[in-house]
Write a structure and sequence with these properties.
This protein is mainly alpha-helical and 88 residues long. The protein has one domain. Helix content is 72%, strand content 0%. The protein has helices at residues 2-14, 22-27, 32-48, 60-65, 67-87. It is globular. It starts with a helix and ends with a helix.
C-alpha cells in the first residue's frame, strides 16, 4: 500500500507541468505569441509553486513589448500555480 501511494505521488509530481501543450494552443486558434507566452508562463508558474523540474522562464523584452505574449504568460502562470497547488 505504501509503495502504491509513493508511486502515485511521484507520478503526480512529475506530471505537474504537462499542461504546456503549445501545439494544442495553436490548434485551438491561439497566436504563436500567446502560445509562446503561455508555455513560458506555465513553466514559471509550476516553478513558483515549488515544482523542482520546471524552470522560471520569461522573455522580459517580449513580455514588455508584446501584448499577446504577456497575456499568454500571465494566463499560463496563473493556471500552472492553480494546477500544481491542486496536486499538492
Amino acid at each position: 500500500m505504501k509503495k502504491t501511494v509513493v508511486v502515485l505521488l511521484v507520478l503526480s509530481f512529475v506530471a505537474g507541468c504537462t499542461s504546456m501543450d503549445r501545439k494544442g494552443l495553436l490548434a485551438a486558434g491561439y497566436s504563436n505569441e500567446y502560445a509562446d507566452g503561455y508555455v513560458d508562463g506555465y513553466s514559471a508558474g509550476c516553478r513558483a509553486a515549488g515544482h523542482p523540474l520546471c524552470r522560471f522562464t520569461r522573455d522580459v523584452t517580449r513580455y514588455e513589448q508584446d501584448r499577446q505574449y504577456k497575456k499568454g504568460w500571465n494566463d499560463g502562470f496563473t493556471i500552472a500555480r492553480t494546477d500544481y497547488a491542486a496536486v499538492w
